[in-house]
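Record 1 of the preview.
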Amino acid sequence: MGSRSNGDGPSTSESLLLITTEDRRQRRSNNSSSPATPVVVFSTVVAVSGSYVFGSAVGFSSPAQTGIMDDLSMSLEEYSVFGSILTIGAMVGAVMSGKIADQLGRRRTMGLSEMFCLLGWLAILYSKVSWLLDVGRLLIGYGIGVLSYVVPVYIAEITPQNLRGAFTTVNQLMICIGVSVMWLIGTFIPWRTLALIGIIPCILQILGLLFIPESPRWLAKIGLWKECESALQQLRGENADISEEAAEIRDYTETLDQLSESRVFDLFQPEYAKSLIIGVGLMVLQQFGGVNAIAFYANSIFISAGFSSSIGSIAMVIVQVPFTLLGVLLMDVSGRRPLLMVSAAGTCLGCFLTGISFLLQDLQESKGVSPILALVGVLLKFKQVFTGSFSLGMGGIPWVIMSEIFPINIKGSAGSLVTVVNWFGSWVVSYAFNFLMKFSTEGTFFMFSSICCVTVLFVAKLVPETKGRTLEEIQASMNPFIVN
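->
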């Protein structure tokens, strides 16, 4: 790829390039806050409809487990395949997500993903045999595997720097709401009706995508400068001065254009090492902390602990959404690193308490206290009430950071790799979880607790703070060769 500066830019592009880097930095420091325009808000709402689909798919398997196993005469092993095959599809989707998003654009990629999700829900709705159920789950997995990459990337690319963290974390909030709604209503309705409800957000996003702009940074990447500035003006408001932001995007994109288009193996060059270690490391630690295993099989955990699955699920819903919303509000105030560390410490404590409760139950030392401790432990796992502030940092912030740290020339390949790692970890843990619980319930949660403890150290040593910085600034600091 070469520079696209000849003949592709609008008439104002030459004047934009006359603004020096120092001038832009000074102007940014004088006016660092940009408003959340209606277009940015609406575009984010449409994008995170895909996150809701993601959450619905994850939350479906727990309340539907008893009904599906009874209706289709499935064994525990067969249902474990159904629960975990979602992550197989997601891994396939993740492998392709970056390339698809780079070729088709962020908006069309979200639409394509929702078509797969829609077909998957229909297959589950009308399934009479277990294999069709698995096919539907696989299709949904493929769709959410792509969505898990493209949604946070799109939001990060359209929002101003002072709002990027909070808006990108809405992705995780909607996942949380999707899981919670499935848990809550799945307690009272049949599993086929639950599958029918899963179709609704797919249709809503497909319709909403017709009315939102494409990512300006993707348009710049493919050389559509007029469209880039038009989309940026639409996002920032008719009267907003976009010259500074447009010039920074253009300069940075043209610098990256001097580099060849990356392939997956190019990611392992030394200049990308820090970004890759952070992106992959956070996803590995997130998944092997056990979050998705508990999400997929929450009902069976409550039953094992001697609790009513309905009461346990409702209690989790009551706490989950408010604490996740608190995380959204704190994201651009306290920063990513402190929330990640508090979050990881909370998951560590939650899993440890859960392990202790099951140990006490096995020893029959405290039958009355044991189930309560198990409930509190699982709640802590999801809500991270430890320190009384922020819940799902490890759930959402790794995706925020993934969308921020990779330069646009490797974002597709790197994002695909990071997303594949995330879903592979999710598959390993979700498939093995029921068998680990049979082998040693308390040992399973002590293992999760140890991994969460390692996460605190990883964040403290390696993860940078990205709050209040433009994507171009973050990527240049992570990959200093770009500005040399």
